[in-house]
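Section: Multi-chain targets

For targets with more than one molecule, the full set of components is provided together so that the structure can be written out for the assembly as a whole rather than chain by chain. Components appear in the order listed by the source. The example entry contains two components.
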Amino acid sequence: MYNSPDVDQYLEGLIFAINDEILPELTTAKAQTTAVMMQAVLQQLRQTVPVYLGYLVDEHNAMLGVLRAAAAALGAADGPEADRIRERAAGLGAAAPLPTPPAYDEVIAAHRALGQALVDNARDLDVLQRAGDTRADEALTVLRAHWGPRYARDLATITVGSGFLGRG
Amino acid sequence: MEQALVEFLRRQHPDADEVLVEAFEPIPGGFSRETYRFDAVVSGPAGVERRGYILRKDPPAAAAILHTSRKLEHELLESLRAHTSVPVSRSYGYELDPAVFGEPAMVIERMPGNGRTSDLFHEGPDADQVDDVIRHLCELLAELHRADVSAVDPHGGLADPRGVGIDASSWERYIETTLEYYLNGYDGIGYDPEFFVFLDAMQTLRRTPPRPLPLTIVHGDFNPANFLYANRRVTALIDWENARIGDPREDLGWMLTMDALSNTSVLAHPRNEGGFLAYYNKLTGFGVTPEELAWFSMFATINVAVPVASAIGRRVRREHNQFLHLYMVAPSSGALIGFAQMLGYPGVA
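Its structure, encoded as tokens over all components, is:
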């Protein structure tokens, strides 16, 4: 998957495009207001995307403790309501905490470093191949076997329609 | 802009009493040039004449995809009109001073015909014309590739129109120096390792050169959107900004790429000739093989991919804010898997 441009750059690009290429062409106050609202939502997404999974996991794990603590606070209280609270603590509240995902920027940087290493490998393999070392052909096949399915998955993920919009 | 056009046209028509520019509007979809259509009404001693024009303007330098000269494009169009029957717009001139139109620009004739070439495919409204139109398109490409290079490009400006060190003195030097340009350019597009396959392709092409053919004039952006048609005939080949001296198989290879990315089927026609490649070989005698077509598909695609990806890279680095460059990432990605297929990557159907 591309890490540059990343999701944030796309969202930022949409905000710029609405400002520079859409808003000047809009002629009604309603359309202009909607465009500005779209910019606000896009900015909201920019702020949310980097922390979204981390917050969900953090809140999930916190809720495990809350379920258990709430049941403990009830002690030996009687009644079906208290029973249900204890059941939730013993059931959902007993689930294992989810692993904390790495920070968005950390993933981007690590992903990029490894990808660049594969690119650098391809350069070095080319030198070996031109020198006639056939083992380099096999090593290149290993790299290609990684990238082939990856390209197929990426394309299936990001493709919207077919062709280039705006072209004949 | 309209007033600048009036003054430009006044210089073309010094005897005119009055020049009016009307119906000026941008044409969407030009990915490498800003394009506008307009009518001009010229009143003079010979009467009143109305003509359709196109203004082709360079985008701002940071956002530009192809850095080529409008002067050179003007000279090429006029030379093609003089030395071939390939239908191209008449060029009325160019203005390199950015103070006039904002960036260097040229003014050309607006040619007749339908530019929505997708109408020819997938049961579109002109699907019944597709075989005849593409037959004619193939004949025009063959004529272009057999044109006298020294007549069409007498000053050698098309040998290295980007000014990147291409040596077109022989086929071998052309291929060698072009691949050097591509490999040097990879550093400019390597802002994302996702482009691994482009580097692999460049290096593989260098290790596996095909047989030589005489260098010719190549259109350089011969794709399913760059022609107009009417009444079963091509009325114009358009967008010559990437024209150069090159291997004729580059135009075929780029069409192979763009046919796939554009969801069209130019190369399947004319059907009664066995398709575009068979008919092209019949007309030229070049004997281009499917393997050579695949080699030049990658070679020609990189020719466009290097400047396109470089422009996207400048957008990523925030050197400009054009949205188009972000949009182009996804549809261009089809080229990555196309390359992976042609290079035989495991796991790619």
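The CA atoms of residues 28 and 34 of chain A lie 10 Å apart.
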